[in-house]
Amino acid sequence: MSLIELMFNAVFNVLNIYIFFRVAKMFVSKKDTPLFLQVITYGMVWLINCIVHFSFDNMYLTTLSLFFLLLIAIFVLYDGSLIRKLLAAITTIAFGIVIEEFVWRLLSWLGDGSPNKAAGSLLSSFLYIVLILLIERIFYVEKAEYISKSSYYNFVLILLGSIVLVEVLASVEEKYEWILIGLSAICLINISTFFLYDKVNEVFREKVESQVMEEKILMHENQLELMKQSQENIHSLWHDMKNHLLLLDTFLQDRDYEGASKYILNIEDYIHVPGQFVNSGNHEVDTILNYRLRKAEKMGCKIDMKLKVPDCSFMPAFDLNMILGNLLDNAIEALEHVGKKDLSVEITYNKGILLIHICNTYDGTLHKKGGVFFTRKADKINHGMGLRNVEYIVKKYNGKKTIDTGGNKFYVSIILFVNEE
Q1: What fold characterizes domain 280-421?
Q2: Predicted model pTM
Q3: Domain spans of the chain?
């Protein structure tokens, strides 16, 4: 094996390992491990696999060693059950073998005679990563990327362009060494593109998470302010309770029941805190709803609120905020464009079943493509993520979402099946 062949195989192995671990992430989640441990683990998988390949030049032995190396790395760096970890390693290798076999048979069928081995392997890897990206985009909503669709499609276009370039290079009548150098360059370009893609996606993810945390802080500040005001009102009422009871007693002795009733209503109004729309005792639900509904009230919105939930936590606060927050944000955004602003919210939880019904008036303008509703906001990336997050929560809890848009009213009904522990 010449030096150039060694160089190509070393670079190609980096690409393959990236692809294999990307497939593995569909089955298992990554642990919070130190960076140096990740680098050492990935590096050892690459190095040992290269040594086995260069030493024995046996496809079966190389594949077997790669399987065990992947399995060890998955156990070290990823969380999940034993079955899922085994499935991740087996599926990764099996998909690679099937795709490579498909590419070689396709090239032979197209009349390439004896296809270039390096080019065929590279084509297989590029086809593999395209397939993974499509599967992630369609089926793995929770692993969906944060970058815009246009950036995502540009990335796929680079991959498809690379496939064409590989095929062109393979058909050029040049020295095999020059072809390998060209293929290595294409491979390096794509590795760099993958690295850039992941980094850009990480930046967007951090931006979204930062905004979520910022909003969470604002929600809790709002709830604390409401609680403080409520406590002050109750304390003030308690301070004068003796006088209030004496006056109520006077109303009752005089049989002035209407006066007593009005006085009690005055006490209720005094205790009520402006901006506190719900007080169910469930801190997560109250925090999310009071923060969002306060926004709607400031717009002059007429709010109808019905809430029946336990005062204890019944699902993860993150998931609850993701679905309620995004649904209410969409409703409030639609209300900005209408004169008559009506918002109806009904939330019920009983025996592991969560029902959410939200109805808001809108101007009749809908942005819909392929059965999916789109936002009218300028920030398409973040708001689009909100809509996708709603879909993710519905799928996560094996739920169902129904939308009705008749009579200038946008109605969303969601049912989630929450596992009670």
Answers
A1: Heat Shock Protein 90 (3.30.565)
A2: 0.60
A3: 3-211, 280-421
